[in-house]
Fold each of these.
Amino acid sequence: VSSVYWLVFSGNCAYLCDQTCRRNFSSFAAKLTTMVGWVRSVRAQKANVFLHVNDGSSLQSLQVIASSELLTFGSAVEVTGILKKSPHQKQPVELDAKQINVVGECNPVDFPFKIKERHGLEYIRQFPHLRCRTNAFSSLLRIRSEATAAIHSYFKDNGFVEINTPIITSNDCEGAGELFQVEPSGPDHADGENFFSVPAYLTVSGQLHLEVVSGAFSKAYTFGPTFRAENSQSRRHLAEFYMVEAEISFTQSLEDLTKVMEDMFRFATEHVLAHCVEDVDLFHKHVTPGHRLKEYLMSFLRITYREAIDILRRSSERFAFPTDWGCDLKTEHEKYLVKHCGNIPVFVTDYPYDLKPFYARDNQDHPERTAAAVDLLVPGVGELCGGSLREERLNLLSARLEEAGLEDVYSWYLDLRRFGSVPHGGFGLGFERYLQCILGVDNIKDVIPFPRFSHSCLL
Ligand code: 4AD
């Protein structure tokens, strides 16, 4: 055969795939077949050498029976041979090699990963350029890919339109000042010109652009990279992370938003459980033992910020940060609340108005004055989603912007309230934190292919 084929295992069946088709294994039996991949194990037994060759499409490797002992762990190979049914239950087929071409040799002495050794996530993180060659990280990347696909499916199935919001923007949506400024470089820009004529930044959130679109689309979403110049080395902060953001028009209740958040979480998690059985098993058994993904499929709880503060103040825990009305909930508070509620995801609603950005809708509930905002807190991570109803009333919004001195900067945003404004709301979910939560991964740097954080931009 002239083409290169990949082997795909599904249940007890093995399929050979080329670029365009998926055919049953039986039609390939006894024919010469070429496979490519990387050697994941080498075992000599009597006159034979048994290799496990993996091409990254799944955790499963194909057993290759060879006669040469010169093949090393980590090498890239192209093997031509005859596929035959394997006598072993676990692997439906094996490849009796007729010819092995070493495409790229791997020196096992210098290679940081050793055959038959299980390396922890912290160890493999030291090798960002090589870590996808480990089982743990390649499983993570496949799960990440499936979860991404599931989130797109969820929105598509539920009538949302995907919008590509810009990476470069002139607004600071969250108003927290954690921005990376964008400036041109190179000989053409040596005179320090202002390329965009206004200060431009990497986006911290696509929300305001989604709000523009939600003036014409009742359901819209975006899923892309966002950037925050947070000087944090914490286990849940990155300078570049992926955010899933949705905006829903004609909604007047936080319940509508929390329902979408919960449904999307459940849909994506069930999809990962159904489509990444072996990869999830690997995590459960060896990477984050004791963590069970299924546990995150129960109903979510809802409490108000007022109730959250009462729980924190009644507790005997000694918190480092204050727990008075009006104080922001810190990681220690979020983790305590989740534990107190039985280690299940918890929505906290109706935060003090002054804690939330200018766009959050005023509940007008004197004397406390809260905003129709919601955070979703989850086990192991704390805050996973932040959302709110948006202030759609022109008079209230312009008063708040004026107070903040932002009326001119956001005149276009006020226009949205002038021309066919509707009650609307939305939320953002931190995708890496979602993966941390479902897989029980302690450090956010271990769930993204190339982590960026303060003092680190490797590769
Ligand atoms: O709560 P945040 O700041 O909400 C917004 O940006 C809204 N404008 C979203 C919207 O309503 N469309 O961020 C949303 C989520 C957080 O709950 C958290 O999970 C994640 O983004 N996040 C981070 N993840 C990793 N590293 C960081 N530095 C993060 N900052 C926020």
Amino acid sequence: PKQKTLALIKPDAMEEHRDNILQEIRGSGFSVTQLKEAVLSRDMAEEFYKEQREKPFFKQLVEFMCRGPCLMLVLTKENAVEEWRLIMGPTDPEQAKETSPDSLRARFASDILHNSVHGSSNEQHAEEKIRFIFGDICSDAELTAD
Ligand code: CMP
């Protein structure tokens, strides 16, 4: 069965790496079923990352995510959540370079905060974050059609 995940191209990667990342997404067999470019407000960034609220880097994370436009995408494919996480690689690009040198973060991220892309960590988060970013406009029909 097809699955959806939420992907973000973060502000640090938008200028130089956006096209490469989109190419990689399409080349990996994902359908981009929704897409939106926007600068997140502080409130939106705080809500989006509410699970990280107690982390020492939360403030920096919110500032970073608001500093310029993000590209937000719904990616649809079988096993999309896990597949997108594999393509992104580990959160920390230093680790990514060791364990997954072909991953997006190994290639494009500069450090653990400015790590170029985001992906939902599980199916429940994916649904919640997609609804948060895009509302309820996407029906599930496409997911059950085949
Ligand atoms: P992301 O996968 O979007 O989820 C949470 C984000 O917090 C993460 O990518 C990084 O941008 C950031 N992050 C995670 N761990 C750290 C850390 N130790 N120091 C700074 N930023 C971090």
